[in-house]
Amino acid sequence: MSVLARAPRLQRPGAQNASGSRSPRWKDFRVGEDVLEFRSAYWGGQVEGLEDLAFSQVGSDTVISYGQAGESITLVGVDSAQLHLQAATAFLFT
To answer: What pLDDT, on the 0 to 100 scale, is given for residue 63?
Structure first.
């Protein structure tokens, strides 16, 4: 399982992120297989559900913005429409 400081956890062994920056880019997220875990404790209760996330399509990538400090994560090569179809299983809020 890959974990980035102050970033969502990608629940899959061997998952790769393209950077360790404040705005990480996950280059191998698999819609329908992978789960992004957002831990509320990291965000002071600011990220507790899908309604706390903002999605945008930037070229072939999906950018998910969250938190009051403007954090974001980019899922490289992921279509936001496909991600929304799998939202019930693609996200975990703890």
So the answer is: 94
- How are beta strands 36-38 and 91-93 bridged, if at all? parallel
- The whole-angstrom separation of Cα 24 and Cα 69 is 15
Query: What confidence score (pLDDT) does residue 62 get?
Result: 95
Which residues, 6+ apart, have CB-to-CB distance to 68 below 8 Å? 46
| Domain ranges within the chain, ordered by starting residue | 9-93
Given a cut of 50, the residues of the chain with pLDDT beneath it are: 1-6, 12-21
φ/ψ (deg, to 5) at 83: -65, -40
What's at 18, amino acid-wise? A
| Secondary structure letter of residue 21 according to DSSP | S
Distance from C-alpha of 67 to C-alpha of 2, rounded to nearest angstrom: 21
Single out the residue of 1, 37, 32, 41 nearest to residue 17, CA to CA: 1
